[in-house]
Amino acid sequence: MVKSEPKKKPQFGGFFQRFFRKSEKSQKEQRLTVQRSIPYLEMGRDGICRVEEHLYSKTVRFYDINYQLAQNEDKNTIFESWCDFLNYFDSSIRFQLSFINHKSDMSEYNKVIQIEPQHDQFDDVRMEYAQMLKQQLAKGNNGLVRTKYITFSIEAKSVKEAKPRLERIETDILNNFKVLGVKAYPLNGVERLQIMYEMFHQEEERKFEFSYDRILQSGMTTKDFIAPTSFLFKSGKDFQMGDTIGAVSYLNILAPELTDKVLAEFLDMDKNLVVSIHVQSVDQLKAIKLIKGKITDLDRMKIEEQKKAVRSGYDMEIIPSDLATYGGEAKKILDDLQSRNERMFLITVLFLNAAKTKQELDSAVFQTAGIAQKFNCTLNRLDYMQEQGLMSSLPLANNLVPIKRALTTTSTAIFVPFTTQELFMEGDSLYYGLNAVSNNMIMADRKQLKNPNGLILGTPGSGKSFSAKREMTNVFFTTTDDIIIADPEGEYYPLVEALGGQVIHISSTSRDYINPMDINLNYADDDNPLGMSDDFDMVALETVNNQYLGGDTSLACSAETQTQIDKQVVSLVKSQHEKALGILKENRAKLDETAAYLYDKETITGEEFMRILNA
Fold this sequence. Notes:
This protein is α+β, with helices and mostly antiparallel strands. 42% of the residues lie in helices and 17% in strands. The chain is built from 21 helices and 17 strands. Strands 1, 2, 3, 4, 5, 6, 7, 8, 9, 10, 11, 12 and 13 form a 13-stranded antiparallel beta sheet that branches. The chain starts with 16 loop residues before the first helix and ends with a helix.
């Protein structure tokens, strides 16, 4: 931080003074640095920022939930909870909602959809599948990262006084987000600095590298790590930071009513965009007093218009329509503040567009203005206030733009910050389609979920079997996981054979058998031990006694039947033993080859054993 030195009196006066005094221009150039333009004083490790001498702020990042696709009843519930969330903030807390769309490195997404070859006859299919995933990735906006933050600030004499109150507000915010079903967490100092770095370097690919240890080693400040190479606010319509050209505009709300899709429309743009909504709650008593004062002024103006009408000789009921309209709206707002759970907020909505060239910037601003016009609003440039607009767009909860609009809780909550939840997981993720709202890819790894199980429900002919087959083929082509299918109807064995799998038929007459020596004799309470011979077939020969007091079993047959059971078990064991010996003798050469492999390698995997066996 640069501290200004106290001015020293010149040693010489009169004629010699102008030779020893620094010019005002050189002093001004020394003060105007990029770092000094960034409007905060200190950024702590714990994420507490000293914005001004007695102003401190913290930031919480929150994620999206499915709002646009929800049913109307669920939407109403979310909207009411969001209104309660806004009413939490009193007049002593300033807060700012920040929505940042910025481009990310596509290599991270390509790593997720990349399919590694497994060196078998299906590698060509895998490569074709990977190409299809790349085409689907290009259709969506997965290359555009959308992040959402809420920054709140309070006034305090010192950081020691501000810290406990900020932590209490942070806990309340996290609990309110939890009620909404929104995942959220507070940011530390490095994460907050990274946000500002990415805002100042939107068109640069160099990653943010910073640690607080480097400050001690280099003697620099946190601003030195996030500042661009230069700021140029020469034009009143736009500005330049480094190699990026930007422009800040504010939303002029003209519509009497807005829909809850207005913010989602802006965030759906596929360009770099920062939307900042500064919100300042007005004390309830002051708000009511303000509205009453406005109503009194309107009534006085109405009386004056009626006096003019009487003096002019026409009907006194004929008054300007604006007075009648504004008077009715003011009374409605007063009724909302007094009888409903409504507060008054002063809000400022700012839009920061950035691009590499002036032409791209004008195109982005024009697209943003078109969306505003769609909702009967206008997007106006901050003429000769671009620096204040840029610094107000930083997530510091410090609004430097004096343009504000008074709205009630319901009107403020119409800027619902939720659209749709994205699902793009890393690891062995499977492709499940495109998001209906954002058109982004849905990639999920069920093994990372708390409950990896799935259930396919549907009416007859709706595609339940097809969905199951698609899940199996996705797992087969993209992972090395084992796939075990229990298929009592024999519906999936053609797919298994086509993919080179093994089909095992288990029945009393099949060639495949289950080794009775592998059966667990400690049956569960609801299991029944079954006979495994042609004489007894699938007959229960045991009963469970005292199911809730130990669950011991006993044979439910005569002594002669028990003797026959023992003979059948001995016969089954002998026949299977002979069968096992026959299999081993038939595959003696394979066993010798396997033994030689183990003698050389000591261990062998299942795939290596099957390769030797099938060779």
